[in-house]
Design brief:
There is one protein chain. The protein has a six-stranded antiparallel sheet with strand order 1-2-7-4-5-8. A two-stranded antiparallel ribbon has the order 3-6. It is globular and about 50 Å long. By secondary structure, the chain is an alpha+beta fold. It is built from ten helices and eight strands. The chain has helices at 74-78, 98-105, 110-121, 127-137, 142-149, 153-164, 168-185, 190-197, 202-213, 217-221; strands at residues 2-6, 13-19, 27-29, 35-40, 43-47, 54-56, 63-69, 89-91. Strand 1 (2-6) and strand 2 (13-19) form a beta hairpin. 45% of the residues lie in helices and 18% in strands.
């Protein structure tokens, strides 16, 4: 079981929860340009922004309650630049006071406890990074993105790396992959997905999916 909803109090944040069913296979978590704070069976950790898929073992009954931070909003809450967390899973008490993390870990309603703790540390959204996320998702060139954000190419690289964990070109690749997955799940042919998502051709799509997800697009959809 998996469900998600936009946070009612935190912009660009998604609240999600999951319970692993009996007989389920490992979960392949594909890069999405976000970082998460996750409560999992009484432990709380940060899932940093990924560059390649992470595979989570399937333990029946394992429960997750989490917040996913979009538009580069997570690092301000954590007090740590995103590039220090890339492809890492870090205990939350490594960046927050242990007492605050213990209260979340032991809460009857971890999602609410986590949302309240984040609200107390909320730094707001960087408008330039919100613009960057939207432009990168739309497939605009890095030069166009810099103009939209009112930044030089060097400034854009530095701020994007701190907010998302990697530069704008990598962010574009990741968001293009997410766009392709959304299209593929709607039942479109892979050739159509490649064109509509902005790949040169279907072979380009296949290479990018395997590079970031570790499996073919067909296997990923299954």
């Amino acid at each position: 079981m998996y469900e998600e909803r936009p946070s009612t109090t935190l912009p660009y944040v998604v609240v999600w929860r999951s319970v692993t069913p009996p007989g389920g296979g490992p979960k392949r978590i594909v890069p999405d340009g976000c970082l998460d704070i996750i409560w999992r069976d009484g432990t709380v950790f940060v899932a940093g922004p990924d560059t390649t898929a992470q595979v989570e073992p399937a333990l029946p009954g394992r429960r997750y309650e989490a917040l996913r931070f979009g538009a580069g909003t997570g690092p301000g809450v954590l007090g740590v630049p995103a590039d220090e967390l890339v492809d890492r899973r870090v205990p939350l008490d490594a960046v927050w006071p242990a007492a605050a993390v213990r209260a979340i870990a032991e809460a009857d309603d971890p999602a609410t406890a986590l949302s309240e703790a984040v609200s107390r540390r909320w730094q707001g959204a960087d408008r330039a990074m919100v613009t960057l996320a939207g432009a990168a998702s739309a497939g605009l060139s890095v030069g166009s993105v810099a103009v939209r954000c009112g930044l030089s190419a060097r400034q854009l690289q530095r701020r994007c790396t701190a907010a998302f964990g990697y530069g704008p070109k990598t962010l574009q690749r990741i968001l293009r992959l997410q766009r392709a997955l959304t299209l593929a799940r709607s039942g479109r042919s892979f050739a159509t997905v490649a064109v509509d998502a902005g790949y040169a051709d279907q072979a380009h799509l296949a290479r990018e999916v395997r590079a970031m997800a570790g499996v073919s697009l067909s296997a990923l959809l299954r």
